[in-house]
Structure formats: C-alpha cells, structure tokens
Amino acid sequence: MRIIDKTPLQDQNGEIGILARIQGSLKYGLKWYAQMEAQKAVIAQLNRLLEKGFVLIRNFTLPNSEIVIPSILIGSGGIWVVSVTNVKGYFEAKGDQWNEVIGGRARPARVNILNRTSQLARAFQKYLDLQKFDLPVQVEPVLIASDPGAQIDSLRPAVRVVRSDAIKQFAASLLQTRPVIPVGTVYELADQIIDPSLRKIKEKTAAPADGEDQPPSRARAIFDASDQPGEFSPDAFGFAFEDEEAGTSQPVAPPDQRELEAGTAPARPRGLFGMNTMQVSLLAVMIIVECCILLGFVYLLFFQFQ
Q1: Cα–Cα distance between 230 and 208 in angstroms, integer?
Q2: Least crowded by CB within 10 Å, which of 146, 204, 268, 294?
C-alpha cells in the first residue's frame, strides 16, 4: 500500500519531536499526539494487510480551510475516510448517536465521534464535487477503535465501526469489494486529489478530438469556464461542521477544531489570544518550567565563577 503522509509538524523521518508535540497540543488539542500515535499504529496494520493497488493519504488538510481529513483510503473498490479513535471503555453506536455506557446506563458522550467522522467524509466529498472529480462511488466514512479496551455495541450505526480486533476482517472486506475504479488509475487519482492542477495539466496536454483542433470561440470559452473546478471553502458545505456537546441543545464547535464560520457569523469568544482555558493553562505550565530551567542555568553559572 502506498502511503502519502501529510501530517503537520512531523520531521522528515515521520517523527513528532517534543517541541512539535507542544505546538500540536496547543493548536489541535491535548489529545492530538496520542491520536496521531494511534492512527500510525492502525495504518501500519492496514499496510501489512492491503496489497498493491491501495493508496492512503494521511492527514490531508483541505485547501482554504483548517479541516484535516485523518485518512483517505483509495482502492479499486471505492474511497473511504477513515477516522481512528483511541478511546477506552464501553460505548454504544446507535444510528448517528455515540453513547458512553457507565454502570449499565448509556448516555451521550461528550464528543460524538460518529457525527464527526460522518462530517469529515461529507467535507471531503464536497471537496471532490467542487473539483469535479467524476467518480462512480461516494465517500464512505469509517471509524476504527485502535485500543482493545474499547468495547463497542453497534446497532445500525450511521458510520461503519471497526473494533481493534476486527481490523483484519475490515481489510479483507476491502480486498473483496467489487472494483469500480480502474486499478491503474488509483495512484494517479490520489496525486490529483492532493494537487488538482495535475488533472488540469493532463487535460490540456491531451490530444484534441476530431473537429476541435481550431481555437475555441469566445462563447465556447465562456461555457468551458463555467465548468471549471471551483475553489474549496468551508462556506460551501451547506451544513455546519460542528459537534454537539452532551447536555446542550445547540451545536458547538469541537475543542480541537477552529471556528469555520468566521466571517459569516459573529465569532464566539475564545479566551486569551484565541486559546481556550486548557490551552492557556498548558502554556502557563510550559512558561513556568522554562523559567525554572533558565533560573537553574543562571544559578549554576553564578556559582561556577565564584
């Protein structure tokens, strides 16, 4: 399986250093690094199970937005947006509801990861539509639980849910899926998704059809221009890219996702310099630790030259 890694803040060896971890935690949330490690472990499993003909694009940021699609898996049988969660405990996936089971009672989890996975798939589908990728299938959302400690009861979930002990079966089902995309174009399709201009270059260099070797008229040029791919924008979704917090009647943005409606609606206060309380606390602890290290260094220098 070919892997195209677009993960932010990692080095050339695919590692995320300490400083990058801090930056990622401040930007994407405190659980970001743990989620990246869980994602890496699942991708390593899929890489061993899926043969040639599959491409996985990891952490692709949609243009003109800060929406990161965690994993885009492309094969001859279709396209899947795969979200990996490292949650532990007992959960219930029922329709579009993601419930946490405590003491035998199910209650809505703080973050609906089923809904989030579905929204990510819809966002990526919208991106493909705007770029006029004429594909025979729709993007399918998949949620994979990486931790064996996650026990999930599924009852017709809106998103395909795969437990850690079923990843092998999931990969086998992909290998058995009826081909709908030519195998020879899977790699090319992945490259064009990352850089749509490659498709435009290919179309321009293609030989003209019979009777179209003359320069197009002005009317034809206007018609063709109207059919050109449009720019991706979160405003083009037609839905709010949000999560619902448990116990609230109005949807609120997920803690690790920036407000996507900025400029189209009054922005909600985000605390100091746009950071929430947890991020401000983490930053304060970092500053205190660095000050202690600096004071210790000065102390050693002072007594060394006495």
Answers
A1: 24
A2: 204
| Residue ranges in the chain whose pLDDT is less than 70 | 200, 202-280, 282-283, 303-306
Would 301 be classed as within a structural domain?
yes
Does residue 224 belong to any structural domain of this protein? no
Classified as helix, coil or strand, 258 is coil
Asked if 302 and 161 sit in the same domain, the reply is: no
Distances (CA, A) of 17 to 93, 116, 223: 35, 28, 51
CA 298-302-305 angle, to 5 degrees, is 140
Asked if residue 226 is part of any domain, the answer here is no
Same domain, 11 and 56: yes
Q: What is the residue range of 53's domain?
A: 2-201+231-261
Written as six digits, the tokens of 127 are 């991106």
DSSP annotation of 20 reads H
- Determine phi and psi for 249, rounding to 5 degrees: -90, -20
Give this prediction's pTM. Answer: 0.74
Q: How far apart are CA 194 and CA 212, in angstroms?
A: 30
pLDDT of residue 51: 83
